[in-house]
């Protein structure tokens, strides 16, 4: 496969197989997804264990692909990263999130925080300013926004990425370290960056409390977070047993199917309203 100037893959092999064709089609469809308004946001509540309140939501991208139906971001985000489309898609996510936050605030909904996933490939010199401009355009305060970054992003990142994270943190945007524990050890970054929250990866939540190793890892991450005075949230919580273990271990927040799946905007708004009265 060779890369043409416009970023579209051109395959010279005789054995252009079904998979390559599908990937090519996926890419060209994805290229049009933003302008055709096929992307939407889902919101998965994050619950504070201290009082059971909804303290925020993770914003999860959805693509309703014509003729196919909903496509998982796990499938198309890697393609978007590979092709550079992540820049415009990422921009759309931040814009749509801020627009939604502003609308919900205007409608009198409880003012919670919204966590957007950032991709390493999304980083460019003007990203911090672009995010701050978007917040300003919708008059959304910086602390209504949280950015989820990953360890691998920090490890592969240049000094420039670290400086950008500093800038965003200093502006009052919350930063959370996603999939914590799955990447290379990044403990030094916990000191260098204005990280607010550690997110225990779903793979460690799986099987607790019966899985002794995962239980130990979850406990250790919670302990680390406490000692560094960071908030700690567990993702992928599906059972009441997991919830009970995490609560007893001192975890601050949970997110997962146990409480709610990611919801379309109107359903999340209704839940937030119901839950806060
Ligand atoms: P992630 O950041 O780790 O997001 C959490 C994923 O776990 C979501 O999958 C969510 O639906 C799923 N999940 C939540 N609770 C549970 C649970 O209790 N059990 C199980 N089995 N799964 C649960 P989703 O929405 O398919 O997203 C997949 C990945 O795509 C995300 O993983 C994230 O890395 C990426 N992604 C999603 N939206 C965006 C976006 O706007 N920008 C970027 N760059 N990446 C995104
Ligand atoms: Ca995430
Ligand atoms: Ca901070
Ligand atoms: Ca995650």
Brief summary of the model shown:
Helix 4 packs parallel to helix 6 (159-170). It contains 11 helices and 12 strands. The protein has helices at residues 18-33, 73-83, 86-106, 127-137, 151-156, 159-170, 187-192, 202-205, 212-227, 240-248, 265-276; strands at 2-3, 9-10, 39-48, 54-65, 69-71, 113-117, 145-150, 174-180, 197-200, 231-234, 253-254, 263-264.
Give the tags:
277 residues; alpha/beta; 11 helices; Diguanylate cyclase (GGDEF)-like protein/PAS domain S-box-containing protein; binds calcium ion; eight-stranded mixed β-barrel; binds ligand C2E; single chain
Give a structural overview.
By secondary structure, this protein is an alpha/beta fold. It has eleven helices and twelve strands. Strands 3-4-6-7-8-9-10-11 form an eight-stranded mixed barrel, surrounded by six helices. It has a two-stranded antiparallel ribbon with strand order 1-2. Strand 6 (113-117), helix 4 and strand 7 (145-150) form a beta-alpha-beta unit. It is globular and about 50 Å long. The termini are far apart. The model has no long low-confidence stretch (mean pLDDT 91). It binds ligand C2E and calcium ion (3 copies). One calcium ion binds at residues 169, 174-175, 194, 196. It comes from Rhodocyclus tenuis. Residues 23-276 form the EAL domain.
Q: Which ligands appear in the coordinates? A: ligand C2E, calcium ion
Largest sheet descriptor = 8 strands, mixed, barrel
- The strand order across the widest sheet is 3-4-6-7-8-9-10-11
* Tally of separate helices: 11
- Beta percentage is 15-25%
Uncertain parts: none
Give the helix proportion (percent range). 40-55%
Could you tell me the number of beta strands?
Answer: 12
Shape: globular
Pairing-aware structural class of the strands and helices? alpha/beta
Rounded to the nearest angstrom, the distance between the terminal CA atoms is: 57 Å
Instruction: Tell me the series of helices and strands, N- to C-terminal.
Output: EEHEEEHHEHEHHEHEHHEHEEH
Supply Rg: 20 Å
If you average the pLDDT, what whole number results? 91
């Amino acid at each position: 496969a060779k890369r043409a100037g416009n970023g579209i893959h051109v395959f010279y092999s005789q054995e252009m197989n079904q998979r390559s064709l599908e990937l090519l089609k996926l890419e060209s469809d994805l290229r049009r997804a933003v302008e055709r308004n096929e992307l939407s946001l889902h919101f998965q509540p994050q619950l504070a264990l201290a009082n059971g309140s909804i303290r925020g939501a993770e914003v999860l991208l959805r693509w309703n692909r014509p003729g196919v139906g909903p496509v998982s971001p796990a499938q198309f985000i890697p393609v978007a990263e590979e092709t550079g489309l992540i820049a415009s898609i990422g921009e759309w996510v931040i814009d749509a999130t801020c627009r939604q936050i502003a609308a919900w605030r205007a409608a009198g909904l409880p003012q919670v925080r919204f966590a957007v996933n950032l991709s390493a490939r999304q980083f460019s010199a003007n990203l911090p300013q672009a995010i701050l401009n978007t917040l300003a355009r919708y008059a959304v305060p910086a602390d209504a926004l949280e950015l989820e970054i990953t360890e691998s992003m920090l490890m592969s990142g240049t000094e420039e990425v670290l400086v950008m994270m500093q800038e965003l943190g200093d502006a009052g945007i919350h930063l959370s370290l996603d999939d914590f524990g799955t990447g290379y050890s990044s403990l030094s970054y916990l000191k260098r960056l204005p990280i607010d929250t550690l997110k225990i990866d779903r793979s460690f939540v799986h099987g607790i409390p019966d899985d002794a190793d995962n239980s130990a890892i979850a406990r250790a991450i919670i302990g680390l977070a406490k000692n560094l005075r960071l908030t700690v949230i567990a993702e992928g919580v599906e059972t009441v047993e997991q919830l009970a273990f995490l609560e007893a271990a001192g975890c601050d927040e949970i997110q997962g199917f146990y409480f709610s799946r990611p919801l379309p905007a109107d359903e999340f708004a209704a839940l937030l309203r119901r839950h806060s009265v």
